[in-house]
Amino acid sequence: MSTESAESGSGSRMTVTESAAEEACRLMESEGMDTDVSGLRLFVQQGGCAGLSYGMRFEAEPEEDDAVVEQHGLRVFVDPASINYIGGSTLQFEGGLQGAGFHVENPNVVSECGCGESFRT
To answer: What is the CATH number of the domain that holds 107?
Structure first.
């Protein structure tokens, strides 16, 4: 398993924490997905009060032009348009009393909405 940041197609770096990789792989395996081929798609879409929001879903394989980041046994697929917004980000998994979930720590964000669900770069 890789423990270092991987290069995306655009040369920007993205990091996946070990806890995020473990949780995503656990969820994919529970859905019968092969983690050697399948992965977590991370994308940016229009929406939210600040203009942009993150989306995530599991996919069986990457698209031809995706950047594929592999760390800690997890493959993350990012399309070329989204990598421009999330290059340099860290994908984390946070648990706690307020609820658990995946979080993107993005150094490109200049402002976020009050609820933290959308952002602007």
So the answer is: 2.60.300.12
- Is the residue at 50 inside a domain? yes
- Give the long-range contacts of residues 38-42, CB within 8 A, separation 24 or more: 38/75, 39/68, 39/74, 39/75, 39/76, 39/77, 40/74, 40/75, 40/76, 40/77, 41/76, 41/77, 41/78, 41/79, 42/76, 42/77, 42/78, 42/82, 42/86, 42/91, 42/104
Rounded to two decimals, what is the model's pTM? 0.80
Whether residue 1 is contained in a domain is answered as: no
Q: Which of 65-79, 86-100, 104-118 has the lowest mean pLDDT?
A: 104-118
Say if 64 falls within a structural domain. yes
Q: Provide the number of structural domains found in the chain.
A: 1
Helical ranges in the chain per DSSP H: 18-30, 80-86
